[in-house]
Structures are given as C-alpha cells and as structure tokens.
Specification:
This protein is of the alpha/beta class. The protein is built from 2 helices and 8 strands, in the order E-H-E-E-E-E-H-E-E-E. Helix content is about 20%, strand content about 35%.
Length: about 110
Amino acid sequence: MKIKFDCVFYYVRNLDAAIRFYEDTLGMQLISRDAVARFDVDGVLFELVPLGEGESVSGSGNARLCLEVQNIEQTVQELKERGVPVGAVHTVSNGALATFEDADGNELVLWQYA
C-alpha cells in the first residue's frame, strides 16, 4: 500500500462566507473552486468542503490548522480589529499560541516560535 498526502480540509456550512473569511480576514489566496474551495498555504493544500443541507460533522476529532506568525501579539490585535474573537496568548516552552474559530466553529491556532 502506498499512501500520499493530499490535503487538510474543514467542513463549512456556507462556502462563499468561508472563502471570504479565509481570503479577506486571513489573507489566504484561493487557488481554485469547484465543489470545494482550495487554498495553497505554504505548499500545503487546504480545502473548504461544504456540508450538504441538514448534514453535520461526525466524530470528535481534534485537528487544528496552525498558522505560524512572526509577531503573535500584533496578529491577534489585527484579527480583533477585523472582528475576529481571539483567545488569550499562551506562552509555552517553545513559543506562544492563541486560538480562534471560523464561522463554522473550526478552530485555528496562531503560533509564534520562541
């Protein structure tokens, strides 16, 4: 069996609104759109996959999209100015992190290396 990495994806309820959030708020570049929306995040394919009417996400996984930033305090402030609620910055032994969510409750993490 040969396994090859394909992508990371989040389910979303409203694809147009989700695209606007990831493009306008986070500055990601949309590279294609058909049944799903695709973004290239530093060489990693990140997709937004719309849920069908009445569908919900199953399972209780804990995957996160982690985004490296150079200045976490500044990035948190910029997101808050754009209306995004961001949690407190937590310092850990190898850096600092803060979490926030998209409109569908998908958790994202800001990460600054120490």
